[in-house]
Specification:
With 435 residues, the protein is mainly α. 74% of the residues lie in helices and 1% in strands. It contains 21 helices and two strands. Helix 9 runs antiparallel to helix 10. It starts with a helix and ends with a helix.
Length: 435
């Protein structure tokens, strides 16, 4: 769909106004919440405390222990993603003073705003300005929920950053981008994905899996050499930067000559998988609590260190032992969690509504275009963007079922429910205007 210069300038002004309004909301909120106290999340508290070390020593890519000695991030925030600690360290070192809870909330908010701007550009590029207005009217209230110093508050924005390589693949293939345009876009997308990987590795994994599916489908539909190269570049770059946390840890290890550590950053999958069975009452007596996981690990091996690879291997093996002992009970647990996340805050209703609007918009488009080859070219982008949204909703649902069904874990899927709705609404508006 061709965009006029006047319309593009209007959209840019609208996005600037949106960011300005969100910034004003932030300023008002910041004045009302001059917090210096601790949050209820241990990882966030640790990240705030480490900023004192950054001020006194200038260390950004590592942490300090209680004696003020430099150590790896994984020794202080083991089992947690290090994005918060890295960001707050850099901020404290630049400003020369420790961070507060409001600083932590601000970084969450900035990531959410970035995610909204990226999604708004996608919606406008694929649809029209009316759809963009509808999209912003829905997402701005969601953005207000990011005014929090909570550890998971930024994940709505992080989820959007994680799919940027897949978005670039969609637009590059459907619009026949040049090598230069694709290269520049993929550099920016890789940077965005890297931020997602550092702040929440499991969400970055979802984005990576989505990219593989989308790139594979594009190559299957359009098996040209250029498409193959585009897909290979996207997958290789994303795979390299998916382990951004490990890269940062190894850089700190080398740059500061730090002692080795047996801990790993990020929640090990075995740990999350096993404790996920304890989110609802169960016959195994498992409890959703990190300390319970450590207790089980110590029972299996008194010498094991929490947050080590051996610890995660033990809990993974324990999960499969439990699964083998009573698979029906495990299925019951997962079924209960699926029902819980579906009913929580009307999640299922909004997903079904968005999917219905998306399918109806697609049906209107197919009815309006009789030439099948023209339809395939014109609506490839529509289908691929819808696929990205559905894949991410599905992956967040899977995470809710096997790990934790709490709303803070499922909330990032709202970005993709809104995208699905906006895509369908755009087609309905387009066909309505034409008729």
């Amino acid at each position: 769909m061709q965009k006029t210069a006047k319309e593009i300038w209007l959209v840019l002004a609208l996005l600037v106004l949106t960011v300005g309004l969100l910034g004003n909301v932030w300023s008002i909120w910041n004045l009302e919440h001059k917090w210096d106290s601790r949050t209820n999340n241990a990882a966030s508290n640790s990240a705030l405390e480490q900023s004192i070390c950054a001020v006194t020593t200038g260390v950004v890519f590592a942490s300090c222990d209680n004696q003020g000695n430099r150590v790896q991030f994984r020794d202080i925030i083991a089992s947690h993603d290090l994005g918060e600690a890295l960001f707050l360290n850099a901020r404290a070192a630049i400003r020369g003073k420790p961070n507060r809870l409001t600083d932590l909330a601000q970084h969450n908010y900035l990531i959410i705003i970035l995610g909204i701007v990226i999604m708004a550009v996608v919606v406008y590029s694929s649809q029209n300005i009316l759809t963009l207005l509808a999209f912003l009217s829905v997402t701005l209230p969601i953005a207000a929920t990011g005014l929090s110093p909570g550890y998971h508050a930024a994940h709505i924005g992080i989820a959007v950053l994680s799919i940027t390589p897949a978005l670039v693949m969609v637009f590059a293939s459907s619009r026949s981008w040049s090598w230069l345009k694709y290269g520049l876009a993929m550099v920016l997308a890789t940077l965005a994905f890297s931020i997602a990987a550092v702040f929440r590795e499991v969400i970055a994994l979802m984005g990576f899996l989505t990219l593989i599916v989308v790139a594979g489908l594009i190559v299957f539909k359009r098996p040209a050499l250029k498409t193959w190269v585009f897909a290979a570049i996207a997958v290789v770059l994303t795979a390299l930067f998916y382990k951004g946390q490990a890269m940062i840890n190894y850089f700190g290890l080398w740059y500061y000559s730090l002692p080795p550590s047996s801990n790993v950053t990020g929640h090990g999958f075995g740990h999350a998988l096993f404790l996920g069975l304890g989110e609802v009452p169960n016959k195994f007596g498992i409890v959703w609590n990190d300390s319970y996981g450590v207790q089980v690990g110590k029972q299996l091996n008194p010498m094991v260190e929490a947050s080590s690879n051996d610890y995660y291997d033990l809990l993974r093996n324990q999960y499969f032992a439990v699964l083998q002992s009573d698979p029906l009970e495990v299925l019951r647990i997962y079924g209960a969690k699926l029902i819980k996340v579906s009913l929580d805050k009307g999640n299922l209703f909004f997903i079904v509504l968005a999917a219905g609007v998306y399918l109806y918009g697609g049906a209107m488009a197919r009815k309006a275009v009789s030439n099948r080859s023209l339809l395939a070219r014109q609506y490839l982008e529509y289908r691929l963007l819808g696929l990205i949204a559905l894949l991410m909703i599905g992956l967040f649902t899977l995470q809710a079922v096997i790990i934790n069904s709490g709303f803070i874990y499922f909330a990032p899927s709202q970005s993709f429910t809104t995208l699905l709705f906006a895509l369908g609404l755009g087609q309905v508006l387009n066909q309505g205007v034409k008729s």
